[in-house]
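Morning run. Coffee first, then this:
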Amino acid sequence: MRHFDAIVIGCGPGGERAAIQAARAGKQVAVVERQHVLGGTRVNWGTIPSKTLRESAVFVHAIERDKLEGIHCEIPDEITVHDFMHRERVVVQRELELINESLDRYRIEVFVGHARFVDAHTVAVCGPDGGVLFSMSADFIVIATGSSPNRPADVPFDGESVVDSNTILSLPRLPKTMIVLGAGVIGVEFASIFAALGIGVTLVDTRDRLLPYVDREIAAILEREIARLGITILHDDRHTAIERIAGGRHRVRCTLRLAGTLEADVLLYCVGRDGNTKGIGLEVLGLVPNDYGLLAVNEHYQTAVPHVYAVGDVIGYPALASTSMEQGRQAMRHAFKIPGLTQKTEVLPFAIYAIPEVSYVGETEESLAGRGVAYVVGRGNYDMNPRGQIIGDTEGMLKLLFEAPSMRLLGAHMIGHGASELIHIGQAFLRAGATAYQIAETPYNYPTLSDLYRHAALKALLAVQRANSGGAAAPR
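And here it is:
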């Protein structure tokens, strides 16, 4: 039986970066991946494929919204999701090549199979029939098995009329109508993507307000904008029954507790995801996942068994590719005492790839008010920005939160074109401890959306100036 310094179970973003971090420190690392491709959901079924479809939807919607004289765009009646994802195969293939190149460069050994703990330091690699192919041991083990869409027994998934977020991108044809059950990040993203393609979408939110962890002002703009796409939003409701309608044409009927009965060509069920912890032998370690299959970890990503770490979706929120990567790196830095920057992954940037995009980093108004921190708000609006006018996005907004009276930046929130990219300017200012004065005095290219940072900072400073001169109080 071979011994490694570290074994990483799962090669999604968290597992890949954990393996590379340890290998860069000269450690012998093995990766066990149950799929025949690396990259996890990020590359193969989720992030990259869905964002490819989103780009096509944005393109179609922009042409429809900003029609030019003599230019017409029509979508054929019979077209598949696959037809819209013209770049997905190229992007995925390139990502897989880069992952394999990185693992080869650092001499990380990859084993295909299902990993199962034999004891606290030993992992068996099993074949499709469950038989043990071989076993190996390690000083440290990282669980990075990710998550899967929740699939309740009362939902009749068939891959055609009833789908989840893993199977929706394999639809044989574009539907005319769609019901999306679940208005979390995934539900909102897919609802807006298909609505932008001209599909009638009903979005059912099991909560009483959309994305409760998002700044309320930003969330209100998002709800207004996706409604303008044609999405019907039903809050605080959930299904009582889902059934496929018999007949030649694929249809589905969904009965809701409050709104009654809905019918559509396709129903997308995306109410939660469960950690992939079944069948990996956690009982040998005495580790018990919660009801959603998620593992508890400390600030170093150690489970209750100190030499066993867990990172990524399998530990729950925020469950982003970016945060999973950082968690993997930090776990291995701690395990092998590797010097390096440590930062809380809760304050890394967060993006929702809806149409329009939403992104944020740092504190919210709610978190500051809850702690009694006085703050000042500055806003930069796309409709007051020449680049926003040029691209036709006049509803977007950048919102900056500053500590009073120091005017140090505490949080940045954004909705609109390019929000997921532009938020990194706010992240850099935040990490540098920049103040509104410094942000306002920073030169920006013109015309650019980046100049919104100057506008927002100036608005905050103006609010303070008015308060100091006897006007309305600026700090909240």
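The chain has a mean pLDDT of 90. Good start to the day.
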